[in-house]
Amino acid sequence: MTATAPNQSKVTYTSANVDWELFHRQFDDALARVRAQLGRDYPLYIGRDAVESGGPPIVDRSPIDTSTTLGRFATATPEQVGRAVAAAKAAQRDWAHRSWRERVATLRQAAGLIRERKFELAAIMALEVGKSRLESMGDAEESADLIDYYCQELEDANGFVRQMAKVTAVERNTDALRPYGVFACIAPFNFPLALSTGMSAAALMTGNAVVYKPAEETPWTGLKLYEVYRDAGLPPGAFNYIPGTGEVTGEALWRHEGIDGVVFTGSKAVGMHIYQGLSRQWIKPCLLEMGGKNAAIVMDSADLDAAAEGVTRSAFGLQNQKCSATSRVYVHRGVARAFVEKLTEKTKALKLGDPTERDVSFGPVINAAAVERFVRAVSQARQEGTVLVGGERLRGGQFERGYFVAPTIARLPLSSALFTEELFVPILAVGEVAGLEQALAEANRVEYGLTAGIFSKQAEEVERFFDEIEAGVCYANKRTGATTGAWPGAQPFTGWKGSGSTGKGGCGPYYVAQFLREQSRTVIEESR
Length: 528
Known about the structure:
Number of helices: 14
Strand content: 15-25%
CATH topology of the largest domain: Aldehyde Dehydrogenase, Chain A, domain 1
Oligomer: single chain
Number of strands: 22
């Protein structure tokens, strides 16, 4: 069943008009098929060759139940990284010399395959990441839409080739954007298909080759992306799949002298490490999206029901493990009590448990390190303020087998470091402010600038928010997600400050061109 079938609407992160009974039947069928595949061994893929592990394999375990081995995945040594870069170099010249229309056709085939396989892909992500059904399917659907949107951008720009003015009568001047060569694509765990696809597809359709390292936690999803590109007709070597650790495989990849550019999504610390070390002999493109500490502002004129729902959805979707998640709220003191009551009520109503089940919206965090980070932050919150909801690791029954913690809300003084430190765990800091000026000052008092939201019925407050907030993705009165839910072609996903490197992000009209460099071509025509 494809996304275009008449009896199945597209599922996004904020879907409403969906035949849910049909959706859940299809998801259950896919989940059964995926579970039948558990525990297998998988190689690297360099060119089209299956390559055995050069180091200890990744034993991929589900954060829902750590006794469940999803698979064992080969990891690439630095020598194997070099082989992958060489394979990409060898494939890139022919790939770049194909017409941009041919490359677009191949990528559109990949988008179609993602839609055909979306239930299997979503089921794998649910098991591998601990995503709910809605979040998993949104990830798959976004992946296909990203490819189609970027293809459309390339088509609308005529392959980024345009005729220029003449200085003399005998010359013909053309401006063309040309590929760099080979991109290292290093992906995160939280959107293992959408972010991997968006980064790699933009590089590929513009004539670059890719060496791809999925997150250590999500090698299975990464393998499925490799299979999509292979089956779509991408030539051998244009996309190489090399899972491994960041410290060994990732480090060897971006540092390799044959890499012409890097596209990365992950933490600010790792992103800055790459950025500062990448360009040695000359400047190389380094496209980074590096997380956030995203604020929602709730003013005294706000629809408090909409604000509470929007904040709850953004704070606890995917257990706050989104770089766009709401992790702090600045609420006007005049409505703080009423807002917090509604917020805690909605949070307590969340269904916690195994996110592969149809009615569960809140699953586990990704690993033991995330649990430890949660425990430390809760301890700090108890010392500095009041924990209103949650604050504990979940125990008993199925919770004992996975990395489950409770969705947590803490009322804190504005001086708390929990308002400024990116945690990537489900803790929401709430602070009171006197008005919009103080709220904006507090919201901007962080090193990140990814997403932000406001709830206000005053048009002038909304306009001031857009003018003064230091963030690239901004929302007003978004009930379906205060700071989350960006979609290709609708909300460009751009990080400011410590959240990005170029000021032009994915999902938007300026992303694809960043994988290309400009070349001016002048031909002197013979006089007639």
